[in-house]
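2024-03-11 09:14:02 DEBUG pipeline.ingest accepted 1 chain
2024-03-11 09:14:02 DEBUG pipeline.ingest length=186
2024-03-11 09:14:03 DEBUG pipeline.predict start
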Amino acid sequence: MKKFLILFLVSVSIYSQKYHGYVVTNSNDTIKCKFKVQTNLFNDDIYYPSSGTIITLNDSGEKTKYKPNQLKSYYLQGPNIKNYRFVSLKEDKNKAFYDEIQKGRICMYYHYKPNYGGGDPIRTIYVLKEGIFEKISGLATRKKFGEYIEDYPELYQRWMNSNKSFDIESMDYVVELYNKHFESLN
């Protein structure tokens, strides 16, 4: 009985809404559509993006399912959530969709999994530099990410100087600083 109650509570805390956006196919066609997206029943700002198969709806309500290997990207906008651009990456063999956070010399992505307990989605950070695509997590997060920014010694030193300059949550800002630095050299 407890298992049934838990499953029931999880199922009622997540429901779907429709958001506008578009998909970009592998042949570079852009198709406007609506997305069926899981959101939290109690807070529409908590959105559970799909890193796997996505479902789109055309104007007449017909559903189309896309897997990451079928699209280059999809763009999602909603009234209560930020705009998202999800991409499929050849470096990952097009296995998942990733939320593109930063693009430049270092690209940064978030991969999401639903949190069926009702909270924010579970987010994993990935970076891509010079063809190397890597998950950044665990106890050695600071050191592992530091290896990607060693060619900018001042920023690397600030990053490695523990929590005095940047905490782990500011990694996207560090990537932005890194990319701007190298853009200014060109």
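2024-03-11 09:14:41 DEBUG pipeline.report The chain has two domains: 12-137, 138-186.
2024-03-11 09:14:41 DEBUG pipeline.predict end
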